[in-house]
Amino acid sequence: MFSTRMEKPADSFYRQLPKVELHAHLNGSLSVATMEKLISRKPHLNIQHSMTAIHKGQRRTLDECFQVFKVIHQLIDTEEDILMVAKDVIGEFAADGVKYLELRSTPREETHTGLTKRKYVETVIEAIRQCKQEDLDIEVRFLVAVDRRNGPQVAMETVKLAEDFMVSSDDVVVGLDLSGDPTVGHGKDLLPALLKAKNCGLKLALHMSEVPSQKEESELLLTLPPDRIGHGTFLHPEVGGSQSLVDKVRERNVPLELCLTSNVKGQSVPSYDKHHFLYWYKLGHPCVLCTDDKGVFSTELSQEYQLAATTFGLSREAVWTLSQQAIGCSFAPDHLKEKLRQRWVSLQAQASGR
Ligand code: IMP
Ligand code: ZN
Fold first, then answer.
1. Quick check: 308 and 314 in contact, CB under 8 A?
2. Which residues are catalytic?
3. Using CB atoms within 10 A as the burial measure, which of 7, 39, 295, 298 is most buried?
4. DSSP-derived secondary structure for 73-130
5. Cα 77 to Cα 115: distance, rounded to the nearest angstrom
6. Distance (Å) from CA 335 to ligand 1 centroid
7. Are strands 19-25 and 139-147 parallel, antiparallel or unpaired?
8. Does any ligand 1 atom lie closer than 6 A to the CB of residue 145?
9. Ligand nearest to the CA of 181
10. Cα–Cα distances in Å, from 68 out to 51, 60, 137, 276, 336?
């Protein structure tokens, strides 16, 4: 008995708007269709789709969200699974009008299937390569993720793996993500690994201040500084952060990856209109709308744009500017950024009948 309930798709303006997705966890981004393929491959696990997605009006504690990932990971434990889910996810973002995607995922090893972390990364890269060969209208890059729960040694090993692939993947691997349950571990223990990553040329996209208790950790991580911040929900003083944190983020001009539905359904933000998007947007700080986990939170990037526009009263012009500005916040090489900017200009002209 699978739940096939989908949220209402966004209006065509938001679906057709060219978009940049910079914060998408691979295994949190599986559609109902992909999940059903996985469930039918592994019926013995007795997993139902209702266990892997949070629908409209439903909410979960952050802890419950992390339990969901454990269920999903059981379904994805072979190279074949990873290839399929990565290709599906890339195809779905392309179908939603995403022209540039930075996918992130935590390399896992599964002894019972012979999956190694290196094979895991190779398979995601292969999926990206195949999508390019199939001429999907989307450029994809990959961020190797460090799960903070696994501690400093694994973090260092993951950085070494990411570094190897940065050199050998034809510029597909461009950076490192720090994610995982924010209530576990402390960023100070991971600082040496993050510094090593930065020094070898990997860009850093770090989940920061996702929960209220991370002020000290955020101060520390900002010394790196990161190239982008994931969520940053509790950075500003109105929610218990501090002016000094805000000042540092602004001085260093570190863009924020903001995921409205994820934060509302995960209950770190009480409602859409209270989302910290407004605080940073009003400051003129670079904000990039993202999905985080489009499968788990039953959303799409077009829906996130529509939600932001309707909640905060953004004009269509402002929505175009928001999506265009995301290009500059990406880790794409300069020539690709330029190509994307030109694409936006011609698509906007086309959309307005010029
Ligand atoms: P994967 O890395 O592709 O397996 O994607 C799922 C993983 O992403 C989870 O196990 C977490 O480590 C991480 N993740 C997904 N969403 C969040 C979030 O909102 N905060 C922190 N970590 C997250
Ligand atoms: Zn995230």
1. yes
2. 210
3. 295
4. HHH--SHHHHHHHHHHHHHHHHHTTEEEEEEEE----BTTTTB-HHHHHHHHHHHHHH
5. 7
6. 30
7. unpaired
8. yes
9. 1
10. 7, 10, 31, 25, 35
CB 301 within 8 A of CB 93: yes
pLDDT tens for residues 256-275? 999 999 999 999 999 999 99
Work out the average pLDDT over 63-72. Answer: 91
Residue 4 has pLDDT above 90, yes or no: no
3-state SS assignment for residue 19: strand
Which stretches does DSSP call E strand in the chain? 19-25, 98-105, 139-147, 173-179, 203-208, 228-231, 256-258, 287-289
First CA to last CA across the chain, in angstroms? 49
Q: What is the pLDDT of residue 126?
A: 98
Q: Ligand 1: does its nearest atom lie under 6 Å from the Cβ of 105?
A: yes
CATH 3.20.20.140 matches 17-348: yes
26 lines ligand 1 (CB under 6 A): yes
Query: What does the pLDDT read at residue 2?
Result: 32
